[in-house]
Amino acid sequence: MTITIWSDIRCPFCYIGKRKLENAMSQFKHKDDIIVEWKSFELDPNLRTDTSINTLDYFVNKGANKDQISQMFANATAMAKEVGIEFNLDEAVVANSFNAHKLMHAAKKINKQNEAKELLLKAHFTDGKNIDDLDVLVTIGTSLGFEAEDIEKQLKDPALDKNVAADQIQAKQIGITGVPFFVFNNKHALSGAQPEEIFLEALEKAYIE
After folding, report:
1. How far apart are CA 28 and CA 22, in angstroms?
2. Global pTM?
3. For residue 180, cis peptide bond before it (omega within 30 degrees of 0)
4. Per-residue pLDDT tens for 8-19?
């Protein structure tokens, strides 16, 4: 059974949704039969990486209400804590995620997408790392098993640009406007960080069919 997931490394609910799905999968008796495939989706393709401001100020500069954004951060942090994730959103770097998505496609070649996704999300939301920084991405790549020179070469290769673009074109064709977006066996779809029991129901339904 295949679960295809469109998500962005900059999306807090993608991290929360990933963990809730994993928790549901741990309760699923056929979990060893599941293949998870990650697809690229950029929430803001035009975002310019800017390490001089924090994420809160970034949203305020775009016209958002500071109190509302602070409350949204607090709510997301509480939701993350419920599933064992530590969010440090005030420290999150304003970073374009395109190159991080390229790393995800490189990781797919060695069947390490899940591990890459976890490390990238943790780097962005917990550790305050710049996910658009080549050194940061190479470090994550080497921890996945790549040689530093090899992964650096792949991250600079335009071939992976096409892979990221292809995922996003497919998302448009399907009509995906927000992430996370989960597709079970190319049939059933769920959007958002759903409760674990909803994921479990979807797993059981898709497996029976």
Report:
1. 10
2. 0.96
3. yes
4. 999 999 999 999
